[in-house]
Amino acid sequence: MRYQHHRIVVQSELLRGNPLGDPTERVLHVLAPAAIAGPLPVIWILPGYSGTAEAQLAWDPWSPGLHQRIEKLAAEGMPDAIFALPDMFTALGGCQYLSSPAVGRYEEHLWEELRPALEARFPCGLHGLAGKSSGGFGALLHAIRHPDRVAAVACHSGDMCFEYAYLGDFPRTAEALQRHGGVEGFLEAFARETKKREGKWIGPLSVLCMAAVYSPDPAAPRGIGLPFDPETGALLPSVWERWLAFDPLRLVEDPSVRERLAKLRLLFLDCGTRDEYHLQWGLRQLVARLRAAGVPHEHEEFDDGHRGTSYRYEVSLPKLVRALRG
């Protein structure tokens, strides 16, 4: 095979003492050409919520893993690059690739520990980010928050227009919390559950994960500030506003954010026209704002839903590699 799979073990000091008790030893999976003559572009590929690097690399006869897709793209003429898959999984299923006192210092972990570990092992050029769903959100947010580190982005079905994407899960989460006696009871029951990916668990857990990142509250159980009243289900405007502060639709209203995005070598955005979380509507609103502000971008939609769309990397990765190579 043209690309070799490497595992870089990182002992994280930044994640030490994290409030969820998650592992501090993390494995950075890397796909790199067998022969590297000089610095190559780096593309960080961020899994979606509850996803892992190992799952992205897994082989399936009907749905190729990421390694197989990259080999196929290379055979079709995609220039060489380095692909890095970080492990930023938590007991809540993820971290939105951000730091929070209720979760841990994952944003710093990516740039201050994983990136140096990668650059110590491989000759690296410019860095880009790609991801789907929460990974797409993370890719876009890091481009906004770290313009000195991120030169290109592919955001596949990224979280945005939070009113459409998240609000529908709040009543179901309130019901789950009441059924189990609150946040503590729910998380304890979840820890005992053997079929953790069932909808009755993963939906409420994802809301708790988002709350832990977007609205941490040291006075709340597990430090998770809920955006709704757990007794009545009523939205708490002051907490909800903290969530909205992370919504890409809100962020691009800031001229400095639009300026940063305009400097990217590539801003690729796509979504399925039948996305179950209604993310296509958020993307269309985001694209309208980018277009009105004159921010260069590529926007595509495809006939599919939210799940099982990793084949879209076959569209974005060659674009990212060529953009980063200049």
CA-based gyration radius: 19 Å
Major beta sheet, strand line-up = 1-2-4-3-7-8-9-10
CATH superfamily of the largest domain: Alpha/Beta hydrolase fold, catalytic domain
Main sheet, how many strands, which sense, barrel?
Answer: 8 strands, mixed
User: Given the C-alpha coordinates, what overall shape results?
Assistant: globular
Measured distance between first and last alpha carbons:
26 Å
Q: Quote the CATH topology of the largest domain.
A: Rossmann fold
Supply the number of helical segments.
13
Description of the molecule:
This protein is an alpha/beta fold and 326 residues long. It has two domains: 3-161 and 247-325, Alpha/Beta hydrolase fold, catalytic domain (Rossmann fold, 3-Layer(aba) Sandwich), CATH 3.40.50.1820; 164-244, no CATH class. Helix content is 41%, strand content 18%. The chain is built from 13 helices and ten strands. It has an eight-stranded mixed β-sheet, with helices on both faces. Helix 2 packs across helix 13 and helix 6 crosses helix 7. The longest helix has 16 residues, at 106-121. The model has no long low-confidence stretch (mean pLDDT 97).
Task: Give a concise summary.
The chain has helices at residues 53-57, 66-75, 106-121, 134-145, 162-165, 169-180, 183-192, 199-214, 237-244, 248-251, 255-262, 279-293, 313-325, and strands at 3-11, 25-33, 40-46, 82-85, 99-100, 104-105, 124-132, 152-156, 266-272, 298-302. The chain is of the alpha/beta class. It folds into two domains: 3-161 and 247-325, 3-Layer(aba) Sandwich (Rossmann fold), CATH 3.40.50; 164-244, no CATH class.
